[in-house]
Amino acid sequence: MPNISKSLSYFLIFLFSLSLRASIEDYLPQDVGPTSSRYGGIGLIEIPTARFAKEGNLRLGITSSWPYEVTALTAAPFEWMEATYRYTEIKNQLYSDIPSFSGNQTLKDKGFDFRFRILKESRYLPQVALGLRDLAGTGLFSAEYLVASKRFWDLDITAGLGWGSLAGKTAFSNPLIRVADRFKYRTGQQGAGGEFSYDDWFSGDRVSLFGGLEYTLPFRGWRLKLDYDTSNLAEEPWLESPFNYSITSGVRDIIEYSVGLKGGKEFTFSFFIKGDFGTGPLVPKFDPPITLTPPSAKDKNRLFQDPELLFGSINANLAIAKIYTQGVSIVDDELTLTINQAKFRSQPRAIGRAIRVASLLAPDNVNYITVNTMNADVELSSVTVRRDAFMDLTNSEGSIAELYRNAIIQSPDQHWKRAQFQPTVNFPEIRTNIAPAVKNMIGGPEAFYLGQLWIRINNTIKFRRGLEMSTVIGINLWQNFNLLRTPSESVLPHVRSDVQEYLKEGTNNIMRMKLDYLFSPFKDVYARFDVGLLEEMFGGVGGEVLWRPYNRTWAIGIAAHRVRQRDYKQKFGFLDQDRGGFRKYETETGHLELYKEFPNQGVIAQVMAGKFLAGDKGATLDISRRFDTGLRLGFFLTKTNVSAQEFGEGSFDKGIYFQIPHDLFFTNYSTGQVFFGIHPMTRDGGALLVQHKSLYSITGNTAKYEILRDWEHIAD
Questions:
Q1: For 74-118, how does the pLDDT look when each residue is reduced to its tens digit (9 = 90+)?
Q2: Domains along the chain with CATH numbers
Q3: Taking the model in full, what pTM does it have?
């Protein structure tokens, strides 16, 4: 769980920001919505329910009941789907069968859980869900279930049918055996994990009925939970009963906590921090447009008579709003602006604030204002509005719909290259940012936590438009990666599995130093070439080309690089031989990339097919959900011609990731975001070159459907 600590920090900032305007009643127990089980997902105590959190909900928490201590991260990408990543410590077992290797480390288990709603609750019918527990895990907690929940006033009743680890107590014959004999046998394999054991799903000679209830007490925010646990985990000899009890409460739907009793003997505790990130804003914004005094008739005449003064005034006032003019022109009754900005995730919001300034200062004969947006020195979108319609809207005399009816939204025409006014830029431009950063490794055999606190120095030198050098230098403050002692045993070239060598030897390093050239050779076509130290483990040369038609929801790209593996110290040297014995590892890597977006659902699908860093060939599927707040939840999986045995523990590459915008937690708008992914195992098969400044991300939020999605922000 590489960046859990960072995400937790942002949660805490969010809590603090809310406390600044909270009353004492806000800290009294309140309704906390659907509550969590020991496994992290929505449920009772040990068993699941058919309830779901709001889409866009994220929750991070810990649960404890001997001998299990669980850290879980749960996301609800849709109202009908829940995904959980669990990290379980089993305190009464050693990390491995070899005591000298385990040391004082206890057994750790990682797993993914998924649950899907198949029937929504109605007046007479219950809500029904189907779930898969420990999907592609070790099999220790592997289970499948069908569960139903029905609410009767303050009482929510749940009953379900469980397979696998849920088929322990009071079991009976699996009814699916009558459908096919294969359902009779369940391998129940417990091992390294990573494979989808499809043949085991809903199989086994036994199933069990489980159930429970959740009662909302007549006290503010308190709930009583009871469940009948049929899992074979409940057959531990020290437990005296299959019944579990707990009482749950919370604070402002951002904190949930519970205490209880498991099996009539073991104390249970849980604590979750959560938030609905899909329906913001979480923190009210206090970032209004700049206030300008309308120019007098005399001043307006001066601006009309002196275009340089007009253009300079527009440029200066937009800079106050952190919107930077790249070109301004007036032709007939149309004023055209080309802008660049890194403050607003919503392009219409940036466009609207630029129009505010231009409409106030422009000569009276200007009836239309066009704003072209630019990123990385490439124009990406063009929006034209009627000046009077926009002024009516800002004066509360018009409507968003009326403004849109007369608007033109189209692919840009590279206006800045021929603009009447262009601000003077003194190249080279140098920008530097210094900030603390953290690296994390959790649950290894050497220690539960390994990490590094370091200073990240970002430096960018722009030599001309489209041409820049970016450098990231890391300076160590503290680390304990020197404890790492488990070398990679991969039979593939160690393109990723030698990560511990890079962590140990490259504590003070050059993470990246590369030259990028980005341009648009044709309309809706973008190209990028790069050379240098491309990422922490590889340097080389290559590039990518992207065709992204402006009025479409798809794009096609191709990327190719020739790379060589860097030295573990991560300075300027390259490896002569890695720890696996592969000498002077060089390779070509490249992919055909297909993108498809479904705007109504906020879904983005990406397929990449080609050659990976270890020389294996195959494809990656990446599917994510983007919410209006900017939150993005996604998962990926990669299958190549490397066998499960060659790949090693994990069997194939897979993971989930999150992108949480900074401005969800603050009063000002920002394009910054926290990215963290959960990548259970670091293996060499299916490894991709890290693409800094990928073309698809650079051109994001500017396509026509994205402008329409955020159109209502144009008046903000």
A1: 999 999 999 999 888 888 887 777 666 666 777 888 888 999 999
A2: 4-276 (2.40.160.40), 297-424 (3.30.300), 429-704 (2.40.160)
A3: 0.87
